[in-house]
Amino acid sequence: MLLKTADVVVTDGFTGNVVLKTLEGAVRVLMTAILEAFGSEEQYKPHADALLPALLPLYETMSPDTYGGAMLLGVDGVCIITHGSSNAKAMLNGIKVAHEMVEVDIVGELRAAISAGA
Asked: Mapping DSSP to helix (H, G, I), strand (E, B) and coil, where does residue 109 land?
């Protein structure tokens, strides 16, 4: 089976927001359900102790707090859109992402790529 993956998805703001909110909500619901199941009976505790070290990095990878936000295209500069409910970790990571984008001149790179394709 051939799997196709994407590192970047470009959408309009409304569609992107709906997709992100849906995925983030699904991850939160799933993680909450797993943690509740682990704690539901004493007999599951050893299994939970064995599985949690493997699940926590996955959760960290899927958590929006890890990334801090997404780049808003169409402005002449770096703009990171974050959640209204972003915590301190998410804000710090959003600032780090913005800093990295400025350091590598992402706006200039995008401008050059678009000009070359035109």
From this structure: helix
- Report yes or no: 44 and 72 within 8 Å, Cβ to Cβ: no
Q: Which residue has 């790529």 as its token pair?
A: 113
Report the distance separating Cα 85 and Cα 103, nearest Å. Answer: 27
Task: Name every residue whose Cβ is closer than 8 Å to that of residue 108 and which is 6 or more positions away in sequence.
Answer: none
Tokens of 12: 């309009």
Per-residue pLDDT of the chain in tens (118 residues, 90 and over written 9): 667 787 777 888 889 888 888 888 888 898 889 889 988 999 998 998 998 898 888 888 878 888 888 888 888 999 998 877 889 999 999 999 999 999 999 999 999 998 997 6
The answer to pTM > 0.70 is no
d(CA 62, CA 109): 27
Could you count the other beta carbons within 10 Å of the beta carbon of residue 104?
10
